[in-house]
Amino acid sequence: MGNDIDLHLGKRLRRRRRLLGLTQQQLADAVGVRFQQIQKYECGANRISAARLWALSEALEVPVGYFYDGLADAAHRDSAAERQDGGEILARKETLDLIRAYYQLGERPRRRLLDLAKSLNGEVEIA
Prior knowledge:
Shape: elongated
Oligomer: single chain
Order of helices and strands: HHHHHHH
Number of helices: 7
Radius of gyration: 17 Å
Distance between the termini: 47 Å
Helix content: 55-70%
């Protein structure tokens, strides 16, 4: 179970770092470690101490609890996601790039883009 927790924290760390558009080096500089340490945290090879978790939460602008969100259901969700699409969709760089670009649009273009995506998938629900 300990390794599962380390993996979960690492996934949450990677997701938030990528969402903010930070490199491992930038995050490492912000918390005073080398980028290799961030790599090890993200893959679950090294455990994150309480003090380091606090520093990471400050650097990533989230509460410490963010890293533990969904931990109880993580094993079930991870296995279901791997069966469904071969991995965690939100961890993919192209997904995060798309989300960033989407939220840079105004409300009306976002709605039109969503309608377009749904129509390409056969779910036409234009309002």
